[in-house]
Amino acid sequence: MKIDMHCHVKEGSVDSRVSVEEYITILKEKGFQGMVITDHNTYNGYRYWKEHIKGKRHTDFVVLKGIEYDTRDEGHILVIMPEGVKMKLLELRGMPAPVLIDLVHRNGGVLGPAHPCGEKYLSFTNTKRFYKSPELMKRFDFVEAFNCCESPESNDGAMKLAEKYGKVKVGGSDSHKTDCIGKAYTILPEPVTCETELISMIHKKTKFQVGGTFYTKTTKEKMGKINKILAYSFWVYNKSGELLRRHGRNSKMEEENPFDPIDPIELYLQGKE
Length: 273
Known about the structure:
Elements: E1 2-7, H1 20-29, E2 34-37, H2 44-52, E3 62-70, E4 76-80, H3 97-106, E5 110-113, H4 128-132, E6 142-147, H5 152-165, E7 168-172, E8 184-187, H6 195-203, E9 209-212, H7 219-223, H8 227-244, H9 246-256, H10 264-272
Parallel strand pairs: 1-2, 2-3, 6-7
Antiparallel strand pairs: 1-8, 3-4, 4-5, 8-9
Helix pairs in contact: 6-10
C-alpha cells in the first residue's frame, strides 16, 4: 500500500494551497492508496475530510489523522494517535519533546521527528535539545527518513539517524503545493484502514519502503541564504505561541493525561465490539 505520510491541506494549514479534495485526486492519479494529513498543530484538515468527504467520495482511498506538532525547543514532530483518542493538547503548540513523548505514548500513539536533519530550530538534530540530550532519539517510534522538500544531505542524515537508533523509516512529501504532491512515498507491506493498524505496524518495527524524487521549488530554495532569517523568525513565532498557549495547555494536561497507558490494539478491538 502506497501512502504519503506528511501532507498539508489548506483546510488545516494556512501555508498550504491545496484542498483535501485536490490532494486526494492527485495522489490517486499517481498510484497512491492513502495519505496521513499532518497539518501544523491542528486537526482541522482532517475534520474537513471527515465532515464533507468521508463516505461520500473517494471511498477507495484511505485518509488517516496525524499532526505535525511544533515543540518548544525540539523542532517539528509527526504524531499519529489511535482513531478513538481525541486530544486537544496536540492542537496547543509548545510542549517540550519529553512531555509530548510521554503524552502520546500514554494514550497509545506513536511519533517521530519530521525532516530531522533539516533547518535550524525546525528539525530535531539542529536544536539545542539534541546537542544536550541526543539519547532522546531512543524514545521516538519512527523517523521521517525521506522528505522530498529536503536536500539530499538532509535526507542522508535522516536515513543514518533512523539506522543508528533502529527506528522505523517513513517517507512524506511535506507538500503545500500541487506540483509537490506524490514526490515522496511510504510503501506498507499490507493495507491499513485506520490509524491503529498503522500504529501496530510501527510498534512491531515493520519495515517500510520509503523514497521519492526531490522537490526544488520550495520557499527556502528560492530564498537561499536569506532563508536563515525566515527560520529564526519561525523560532520567535513558535516561542511566542508557546507562551500564549501555556495556560490553556496546562489546564488541558490535567484533563487529558491519564494515569494508565492505553493499549491502541485493545482500543481498536473495543471499537469493533
